[in-house]
Amino acid sequence: MTRALRRTAVAMFLLFGALFLNLNYVQVVQSDDLSEDPRNSRTLLREYEVARGLMLAGDDETVLAESEETDGQLRFQRRYPEAGDYAHLTGYVAVNYGLTELEQSFNDELAGRAQEAFGRNVADILAGRERTGDDLALTIDPTVQQAALDALDGRPGAAVAIDPRSGAILALASTPTFDPNRLADHDREAAAQAWEELNEDPDRPLINRAAREWWPPGSTFKLVTAAAGLEQGISPSATYDDPVRLELPQTTATIGNFGGGPCVDGDQITVTTAMEVSCNTTFAEMAMEVGDDALIEQAERFGFNAEPLEQLANPLASRFPTELNEPQTAQTGIGEFDVRATPLQMAQVAAAIGNGGVLMEPRVVEAVRDERGATLAQHPAQPFVPPGQDSSQAISSSTASALRAMMIDVVDEGTGTNAQIDGVDVAGKTGTAQARDDESAPTPWFAGFAPAVNPEVAVAVVFEDGGGAGAGATGGSVGAPAARTIMQAALAD
Fold first, then answer.
1. One of 105, 166, 219, 318 is an active-site residue; which one?
2. Side-chain half-sphere of 241: how many Cα atoms within 13 Å?
3. Structural domain tally of the chain?
4. Residues 240 and 291 reside in one and the same domain
5. pLDDT tens column, 26-70
6. C-alpha–C-alpha distance, residues 352 and 456, integer Å
7. What is the domain range of residue 68?
8. Averaged over 370-389, what is the pLDDT?
């Protein structure tokens, strides 16, 4: 009998011990996860008790996101007055699906619980006042954003416009877009229906193509290859052979030019002319001449392989391979093989060239302000030093000047004439990346800036599957006109 009681006592002791450990694990180790779990109804109710701050653009005159008090169980609902025009920038706050984009990356500020607001929040508690969210003042220019949307015209693609001098993002557009109000609906069934429709859409409207999708940059990457060559002492007047096809070492593969012939007369071609007519064989040969190490270093100095925009939730780093053989180096020199770039990245490349070779930190939030207009946090212009680099100077000022001159020629009399603006010198580069499969049209690009001297705007535009122009689509015929529309709006504003 004593032995049985002893066993029972030990068993009960072990059970109580296990219960004690489990309670402590749940309350201490798992507390944060449980508190932040969107299925936690108490957390959900608490989050929706606060009126989130505004998102404001155009000198605070355009409201992109606001909170509206409701009569439902959840007190405040998020509203997006401009519907889909800024959906890939603002993101959404959804009961079913959480937060995305700026709603996610600036959640603490919008919910009024950032460190900068600590003193005010303590005072509010003592005074019995409700906590309110703080506002985001954005760098976005609504006129330029609308021009970007007009230029894209609903076709799958994206456009980014940046002020090269400050890194301020003037437009960040991705199409097709979607109405975030449908996902922010407190009617869970209606929101779920919208979510299902958007995810089943083959054009993938939920994807932020401007900052979270990449493509081979095609000939726009020749700006990077040329930069690497110029930095190594290759002159813009240096000449190369002009073959119909360039034979690659260590392989039977070759690289040909657009149209299937030589780029000029089949004899010799200068670097400047090669940029003007976008000669594949020249830049593939130049890439092998400067070597894989120099090309990798130059790409990374422009920001490849680095997170490009910390202010936006989960931006995609553009990719440049870090191990290359000689044929692969030639292919990367014309923006093919495993090179992948976002429009944001190529806009940064153009902006750096226009800014004398200096990369600026891209930013979309200028300041955080409380409801009385007092500034809690400022996000000023500052140089961007990519991880692993020692300077924001991606290229020397002399290299930037030489590239600018070549890019002016591209627009004046080369492949980018459709980007011309009356009375303004425009610097640019077209790109037409090869289709990913035999059934797809090419990927047309344009990257450039205006005015060519002391630029006010740098732009990158890309279209999926030819931008509606089919197999004959090129960066000059599809990308350049779209970029011109955006640059005109920025210069006129």
1. 219
2. 7
3. 2
4. yes
5. 455 555 555 555 444 455 567 788 999 999 999 889 999 999 999
6. 12
7. 48-200
8. 92
